[in-house]
TrEMBL record:
Name of the protein this chain belongs to: Probable nicotinate-nucleotide adenylyltransferase
Superkingdom in the source lineage: Bacteria
Residue ranges of every copy of the Cytidyltransferase-like domain listed in the record: 20-180
Enzyme class per UniProt: transferase
Role played: Catalyzes the reversible adenylation of nicotinate mononucleotide (NaMN) to nicotinic acid adenine dinucleotide (NaAD).
Enzyme Commission code: 2.7.7.18
Pathways involved: Cofactor biosynthesis; NAD(+) biosynthesis; deamido-NAD(+) from nicotinate D-ribonucleotide: step 1/1
Gene field: nadD
GO biological process, one term: NAD+ biosynthetic process
Substrates-to-products reaction catalysed: nicotinate beta-D-ribonucleotide + ATP + H(+) = deamido-NAD(+) + diphosphate
UniProt GO molecular function: ATP binding; nicotinate-nucleotide adenylyltransferase activity
Similarity comment: Belongs to the NadD family.
Keywords: ATP-binding, NAD, Nucleotide-binding, Nucleotidyltransferase, Pyridine nucleotide biosynthesis, Transferase
Amino acid sequence: MTTAASPSPARPERRERLGIMGGTFDPIHHGHLVAASEVASLYDLDEVVFVPTGEPWQKAARQVSPAEHRYLMAVIATASNPRFWVSRVDIDRSGPTYSVDTIRDVAAQRPGAELFFITGADALSQILSWKDAASVLELAHFVGVTRPGYELTNSHLPDDTVTLLDVPAMAISSSACRERVADGRPVWYLVPDGVVQYINKHHLYRPVSSTSS
Ligand SMILES: Nc1ncnc2c1ncn2[C@@H]1O[C@H](COP(=O)(O)OP(=O)(O)OP(=O)(O)O)[C@@H](O)[C@H]1O
Ligand SMILES: O=C(O)c1ccc[n+]([C@@H]2O[C@H](COP(=O)([O-])O)[C@@H](O)[C@H]2O)c1
């Protein structure tokens, strides 16, 4: 008598795990890239989507470079990593950029994916000032990463909404990169090589007088 082989037990399908790295990226630098890479590795993420802001309302007091420049620099910086992508959802939506919209838009494009929103310690400390903060914290799991000069804490946030992660310390900020370019100092190795070239080609961050030469 032959016994029919019992069907193998159905394995629950693994949900796609998607990181969201939101930022103004003016310009994108190695602090952003290392944070995303580290979270992707430790959380076994399939992909990380970098989402440049459209109108970063909490930076309204200062001049932010045109969204297309910030988007293209993010594309250049991530092009060599097969797991990194850049999304236009925030720059194609008019009005102030709210993460509640970002997460909903990304979720609509990737139904079923488990979402991990990556933030540095400084952004995490401000999260309760974001629009619909309570909903935001329900729509994705937040991963707060260390950043030199900022305290990383989730004590102001509801339990189980945010995980904290130590990442290699990169004392780099976009503001410092912009200041260096404006002063004629190098940003090599603070931002990817292609981003240095893009900044030079488009005369970004230069004092107005030096763009006419
Ligand atoms: N060096 C860094 N290490 C870890 N996280 C970082 C670092 N720089 C930025 N981040 C995080 O990346 C996200 C996007 O940051 P953003 O684009 O505002 O860069 P920034 O360097 O803080 O810019 P700026 O200096 O213009 O304010 C935020 O969550 C921020 O906390
Ligand atoms: O949702 C909000 O109200 C909100 C307010 C400030 C910042 N954020 C998000 O936080 C991320 C980092 O922003 P920023 O301004 O530090 O580059 C980026 O994804 C922003 O859209 C979101």
